[in-house]
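Service request form, structural biology core

Requester: graduate student, group of Dr. S.
Request type: structure prediction, single chain
Budget code: on file
Notes: please return the result as structure tokens.

Sequence provided:
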Amino acid sequence: MKVSVVICTYSMDRYEVFCDAVDSVLEQTYEPVEIVLVVDGNETVFERVREAYGGIENVVCHNNDENRGISYSRTKGAELASGEIVAFIDDDAAAEPDWVEQLVEVYEETDAIAVGGDVRPNWQTEKPEFFPEEFYWLVGCVEPGFAEDGEEVRNTYGSNISYRRENFLEVGGYDPNTGRKGDKHLQAHEAPVGVRLLEEYGRGMVFTEDAVVNHTLFDYRGEFDWLVSRSFWQGYSKRVMDLLYPDAPDDKSAYLEQLMTERVPGRLKGLVRSPSAAAVKQLLAIFVFTGAVGLGYLYAILTPDVVEKANS
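Core staff response, request fulfilled:
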């Protein structure tokens, strides 16, 4: 079973961590692995990428003719790929050596059409004291209670996600109007693919905790203001997804409900038993982030033609 790993990048500022991502895939224990490197319309970056990796066997290098966004780039990478399985990892992440091997094992044992794995935080500074683990999803990492090992979900996070390539392309790949494109970032671009796979095949994505990717978290991802803004746009994006796919499974709402009915009460009990400044800060952050998600959702409700604006 040949696996094609697609890694997309766009800025010289990310080149060093991008190389870490590529090198982690080059060092995989599994064979055969093809690597498809897609640069999103930056000729300077592309020349560096081609010089560093273009001469390596089973590495494909491509540069978009202009900045088209992460979703377009990932779909383009899948189109250029030749593997039966297409896997994606972010350009600021690094895979464990057996990442691909663990993904393939699930495909072989379960006949899954999509498999995703664990994304663990790799803080470049100390983890902020106020940051609650329940909101790791804000920074693209797997939060506690996300799923059981082997459980079928709608989708996992984009830094550790894979599909049977034929099925992925059959449902249209990623929507180019979602994901990062310059300053615009309509989040949850993995969700529409998961929804379409469910509609077309009646099957979701299998989560495996053994396939591990470490996500590099730069200083700004630990800034309170950035996290509040991120929460707001998560809420906005959720509203857009609800409008586009009203009948889709609502995993994030279910998680937020569990957060308020189970995790918060548990934290309150723990705080009574063992008071600490960090516990208080994290509890307050949970309420602030959740409120920001709600405000983003409300803002989208009050914004005329929200879907047209998202697609513009």
